[in-house]
Amino acid sequence: VQLVESGGGLVQPGGSLRLSCAASVFTFSNYLMRWYRQAPGKERELVAVIGSISRIIRYGDSVKGRFIISRDNAKNMVYLQMNSLKPEDTAVYYCNRPDNYWGQGTQVTVSS
Known about the structure:
- By secondary structure, this protein is mostly beta strands.
- It has strands at 2-6, 9-11, 17-24, 33-38, 45-50, 57-59, 67-72, 77-82, 91-97, 101-102, 106-110.
């Protein structure tokens, strides 16, 4: 199982970023997928969840109305569109398959 995140970077408050997670070496369309984040000194936080065929979508309270999770099963990709970013969104963002498979993470920094 391989999960590789990309798309992080430095963005100003109010800006947007789109994170991508490329999945391989498993039947991607069979699995619910999640995005988590972890800020320095804080516990890892669930950001968003998407079911195997996108029928189930859930968001953490802190990102509701600003972030959008999506997936493309034909491409084995899951995405996180992040809008109206705030400094408190600064964290390492991780792609996760619920049976404890994680990507290496991608850093998102929101700062002026």
